[in-house]
Amino acid sequence: MRVALMVTCINDALYPSTGQAVVRLLRRLGVEVEFPQAQTCCGQPMVNTGYLDEAVPVLRTFVDAFAGYDAVVTPSGSCAGSARHQHSIVAVRSGDEALQEAVAEIAPKVYELSEFLVDVLGVTDVGAYYPHRVTYHPTCHSLRMLGVGDRPQRLLEAVRGIRLVGLPGADECCGFGGTFAVKNADTSIAMGADKARHIRGTGAEIVVAGDNSCLTHIGGVLSRQRSGVRTVHLAEILASTEEVTR
Amino acid sequence: MTGTFVGMPVFPEAAREALADSQLRHNLAHATSTIRAKRAKVVAEVPDWEELRLAGAAVKERALLDLETQLVRLEETLTANGATVHWARDAAEANAIVAGIAKAHAATEVVKVKSMVTQEIGLNEALAEEGIAAWETDLAELIVQLGDDLPSHILVPAIHRNRAEIRDIFRSKMGAAGRPAPDDLTDEPAVLAAAAREHLREKFLRAKVGVSGANFAVAETGTLVVVESEGNGRMCLTLPDVLVSVVGIEKVVARWEDLDPMLRLLPRSSTGERMNPYTSMWSGIAPGDGPQEVHVVLLDNGRTRALADEVGRQALRCIRCSACLNVCPVYERTGGHAYGSVYPGPIGAILNPLLKGVGHDDQIDSLPYASSLCGACFEVCPVRIDIPSVLVDQRAQVVDAHRGGVPKPEAMAMKGAAYVLKRSRRLSALERLTGLGMRFARRFGPTAWTGARDLPDAPGESFRDWWQRTDGGRKDDA
Ligand code: SF4
């Protein structure tokens, strides 16, 4: 099975450690992941803001980079959702039939990390060790657009040493929403503040999610509040072992 | 009597004002979380809820895709039942028809059943200009009307008010509109409801003309249906001699059986009740019983425009249950007024642009962006309207409508990003200069992000560079 890592533009530029964690984790599970160098972005910033024409060249780059793989795995529910549910809209609009075919071919093979681990590899215990008090925020696109269900929780529950605490109002949006966070900054911050309040109320040291974009927003609010709560991507927890504890 | 939404600021500005009102935020958070819990409980009781949703969506979809036939059939059956059918292309035509009917009976006042469509067309204001007073008889609508306020929720128009505020409105305003509130009025819900009942009874018994909307219109039988919780609607529908029903053309369903899924989906989704307390159905005239003259105004007002929108037309399935408002995290914080329309929340964010078209009004164009696309609205919608997908499609329509002129900074940024993201070489060159995420954030305006949030530090090395340097971590990762 040829597996490609779609690291996402945010992870590439801001959170390389998340991509590195995916590589470490998958290698530990016996999967040699490739990194197609031509990849850039799933085009979601453009699509969700309404710039569909601008997303077309980005989509072409995407299909060129990921064509021919058996699976494309990404540490982002929202970018996986973009590939699975939005790329066809952009392709149809472009009028380019070859692009539409390429999208139809790739889209169903794009997996968010927890889906890939549970559904494709069939593991829930990935042999991780993480001795911290952690609360999990299911991001909206993972939860609703992809329907990852309780896969991330099941993976986390199998982590040794972890103390998982429930998050009140977990399935409420954190207020990030891509460009929503800047176009409607006041509302976004109000939502983020409520999310931060719930997180702080759990007494967790760490809030985990499967999307660094949401965590950037949540972490930005928590940091401004000097809360001391850290944000960590799911991949980094799952990649941690007793030998290398982060 | 009530104000209007005309001249509302764009959503982000209206939202900022609402967010600063902590009483409002408290009222809203309390009300929406209560009804959310109620809805979730009764929906969970239905084992085949998902199938019911599919059935409900199918009923509406069938009627919409065959709208012309269904409407002609409805006109025939209504007429055969003794009703007079009028067609109105827009608000002005509809209002003129209603005013004409009232005047023909020398009526200086009408009593109203709670109806979204008459608010959409501004009927009360139009009638007032003709010297006709339109009295709202639904408790929450009465509060809005007496308070000279605007509705902020589809089902609970006064959701932004608490009971102390309501008592003050009743005390100071009821007298001028009819029977005054009793002197010892408290803010107990039962006491407030009793005061409203006394106030309204006098109007029910006096009015010659009643005005209603309809939740459903059955083409096969010529039956209009109103569901309600209070029974005030039933008073308006049976006491006056003349009844005028203003019905959006999307309310039609083909067959009597089609009401089955709809009447099960609606109460659970809207009020969190298993069944609504009052279901009123009328098919034209029954001699000697109820109104002896029935008029039905079938209204377009942008609905055929919405129907022509392939992605957006599903919004016409909406049965105005308001479940999407109650789960929307944006609505919960901003309230309904920020949407600048009688249709607030997620459904308002798509329905207003669909009915009115985009590209000519900044307020309308701001609505498709008034969402974080979290998808909670789609999850609860009883007729499965994929609101997030419609929002994204409408954003594209807004962007396209503004192509060609002087590009906005955002459009320039998107073009620049598309250029960079076309080639990974360009992307890594940019990343070396600075973190791309930071670059995006700063380009959109640093204050919009950093007003209340810190930005993460840009790492020293991108993932791409790390991969190349270490051969994907195989070489020494020093
Ligand atoms: S869009 Fe759906 S959830 Fe919202 S009011 Fe209409 S029917 Fe109800």
Automatic annotation (TrEMBL), chain A:
Domain Cysteine-rich: from-to ranges: 3-80, 134-218
Record-level Gene Ontology MF annotations: oxidoreductase activity
Highest taxon in the source lineage: Bacteria
Listed Pfam families: CCG
An example Gene Ontology CC term for this record: cytosol
InterPro entries, A to Z: Cys_rich_dom
Cited PANTHER family: LACTATE UTILIZATION PROTEIN A, UNCHARACTERIZED PROTEIN YKGE
Protein name: L-lactate dehydrogenase complex protein LldE
TrEMBL record, chain B:
A single BP term in Gene Ontology: lactate metabolic process
Family matches, as PANTHER family: LACTATE UTILIZATION PROTEIN B
Taxon lineage: Bacteria, Bacillati, Actinomycetota, Actinomycetes, Propionibacteriales
Pfam family of the protein (one): LutB_C
Gene3D superfamilies for the chain: Alpha-helical ferredoxin, NagB/RpiA/CoA transferase-like
Source organism (scientific name): Nocardioides panzhihuensis
Region feature Disordered, mapped onto this chain: 451-478
All residue ranges annotated as the LUD domain in the record: 73-299
Name of the protein this chain belongs to: L-lactate dehydrogenase complex protein LldF
Comp. bias regions, Basic and acidic residues: 462-478
